[in-house]
Design goal:
alpha+beta, single chain, five-stranded antiparallel sheet, 6 helices, 177 residues
Length: 177
Amino acid sequence: MKFKQITLLKTALAALMTCAMVGCGSGDMVGDAVNNANKTNIARIANVYGMFQMKTPGNPGPKDEAELKKFMQDNQEVVNAMGIEDFDAVFTSERDNAPIKVRWGVQGSSRGCYEPVAFETTGVDGVRMVGFCNGTQEEVEDDTTYENMFAGKYKPADTRGDESAIPKFDSNGKQIN
């Protein structure tokens, strides 16, 4: 199994999204940070999904594509800043030009969600990109891991050493140290 994890701190992403929504800080800094966090449609779908959870009482994930598109329409200024202008086209991966599969109804928490929710269908050269609600993406080569992620059976490995001062959280956002 080979994974390449591209990480962003969830709290920084949430702060950037909040700044984008309310217009705080330097326009260039916020715009650059939002662009960097939303370079692909996989990232955009996963990040909008996470925003949906954070803004919906009880933190549920959207039940289907129509509900997520309505959320995007209701928050058009923010999603436009994320690079989403065409609500249909964002559901297609730029890498493989195939539809993005989405896990609907994934439960979040008040601390966010660490679950994989956006999946490339085909990928490139046997590698499929998977987007998580916490602003991370992973390239997945292994079919079993990919299927477990899509089925909600995957729990990410903690790759930080014990010496890390960063608190660790389980898949539901609860601190475990």
